[in-house]
Amino acid sequence: MKTRKLGELTVSEVGMGCMAFSHGYGQIPPEQYSIEAIQNVCHHGCTFFDTAEVYSPNLSGIGHNERIVGEALRDVRGEVVLATKLFLDRSEVHQDGSVYDTVRRHLQASMERLQTDMVDLYYLHRTSGGVSVEEVAEAMGRLIDDGLIRGWGLSQVDVGVIDRAQRVTPLTAIQNIYSLVELTDEEFHSLEEALNQCKVYGHRGFTR
Predict the structure, then answer these.
(1) What value, to the nearest 5°, has the Cα angle with vertex 145 and ends 143 and 148?
(2) Which of 65, 67, 70, 173 is the most exposed, having the fewest neighbouring CB atoms within 10 Å of its CB?
(3) CA of 15: how far to CAs of 85, 113, 193, 204, in Å?
(4) pLDDT in tens, 84-116
(5) Global confidence as pTM
(6) 55 given a catalytic annotation
């Protein structure tokens, strides 16, 4: 399979979004089926796998999807690129003491479920929750320096948010929905602006 660059990451041209093994598109398959499906895709040349801490049945738990992905890819971890996402709430930050401490806590829990000591691409999963994107960007920069992530990204954001984040810690990727079935005209226009901004900054837009 051909490859592309996301920042410093080399990924297969076609990646695998793993959400449906836990949520979103009809009946959730048996766990063993999900594991074998991920392994089969990897066997056929896919090296880029996307998950999130919140992907669980009915979005009612944490980590269901990450555990499946971790189990499926544990024996080929050095050959694949893992992307996962976190959602932040300001109340967590107040409890932990800083945005960095909260983001790191989420990351360490994800790493345990994914059976890895490092995440290749770590996204902020939308920008609600009352935490500024600049604070998250600063925390992500520290995690890169710590060697715990290789790059970071934003999910479901517009040009203004991209600009603000980029000024603090350069982004590796943007993940936005790019589907004529799901997007309104206004949303499609906003997405086009985001993709153009990715070109300006020299990083790739990762769309789904």
Answers:
(1) 45
(2) 67
(3) 16, 20, 23, 14
(4) 999 998 999 999 999 999 999 999 999 999 999
(5) 0.90
(6) yes
Q: In the prediction, which pLDDT does 85 show?
A: 97
Residue 32 has pLDDT above 80, yes or no: yes
DSSP 45-88: T--EEE--TT-SGGG-SSSHHHHHHHHHHGGGGGGSEEEEEE--
23-44 in b/e form (b: 16+ CB < 10 A) is beeeebeeeeebbebbeebbee
Contact 73, 110 (CB under 8 A): no
Q: The tokens 């609600």 sit on which residue?
A: 128
Going from the N-terminus, what domains does the chain have, and what CATH number goes with each?
Answer: 3-207 (3.20.20.100)
CB atoms within 10 A of CB 198: 21
C-alpha closest to that of 16 among 43, 29, 7, 140: 43
At position 200, the amino acid (one-letter code) is V
Query: Which residue out of 25, 55, 122, 201 is catalytically annotated?
Result: 55
Query: Which two three-digit tokens encode residue 117?
Result: 């000591």
Place of tokens 């020299």: 202
